[in-house]
Design goal:
The chain has one domain: SPOUT methyltransferase, trefoil knot domain (Alpha/beta knot, 3-Layer(aba) Sandwich), CATH 3.40.1280.10. It has 5 helices and 7 strands; from the N terminus they run αβαβαβαββββα. The chain has a 7-stranded parallel β-sheet with strand order 3-2-1-6-4-7-5, sandwiched between helices.
């Protein structure tokens, strides 16, 4: 066994990535305070071709040295927008026709393994301490929860984002990306 060389990985250039098909999904960071968490979410969004990130409230925005350090350049490839409040982000998503799903432990949440992801859905990830804000919950059409059995009641937001984005890619990624590629050639 040997590690693959960078050229063997066949990664896209920034220009190729910009033109490539993305998942029709928006991930919303609702007042995420850690710059390392923000950078990690950018890096994971790049890996799984997430369509866009919405950064809200106190969530820091690129360019920022600490975000860039963790994102390893994904802060330059993943599309993002900033909103002063999560409410404004939710209103924008609703106007765009997106379904909104909170990633949170709430009444009626569906466990991730039982959840069926759909295109044109947004997922709200909350603050490291408070979770998804009370201002965002009324806009949510559903909630998904990542099951846990340990003593802690939550996961780090960047870990949660990674698990979620993998599930989205697994369920809708190939179909959505393939469909977009076909539409580009028509």
């Amino acid at each position: 066994m040997r590690k693959l060389e960078m050229e063997e990985l066949h990664r896209l250039s920034k220009e190729e990535y910009e033109k490539s098909a993305k998942l029709p999904v928006v991930v919303v960071l609702d007042n995420v305070r850690s710059l390392s968490n923000v950078g990690s979410v950018f890096r994971t969004a790049d890996a799984f071709g997430i369509g866009e990130l919405f950064l809200c409230g106190i969530t820091a925005c690129p360019p920022h040295r600490e975000i860039h350090k963790t994102a390893l350049g994904a802060d330059e490839t993943v599309r993002w927008r900033y909103f002063p409040t999560t409410r404004e982000a939710c209103e924008t998503l609703k106007a765009m026709g997106y379904r909104i799903v909170a990633v949170e432990q709430v009444e009626g949440s569906v466990m991730l393994q039982d959840f069926q992801a759909e295109p044109y859905t947004s997922y709200i990830l909350g603050n490291e301490v408070e979770g998804v804000s009370e201002e965002a919950l009324p806009f949510c059409d559903a909630a998904v929860e990542i099951p846990q059995i340990g003593t802690k009641h939550s996961l780090n937001v960047s870990v949660c984002a990674g698990i979620l984005m993998w599930k989205l890619f697994e369920q809708i990624g190939p179909k959505a990306v393939f469909s977009q590629e076909i539409n580009k050639t028509c």
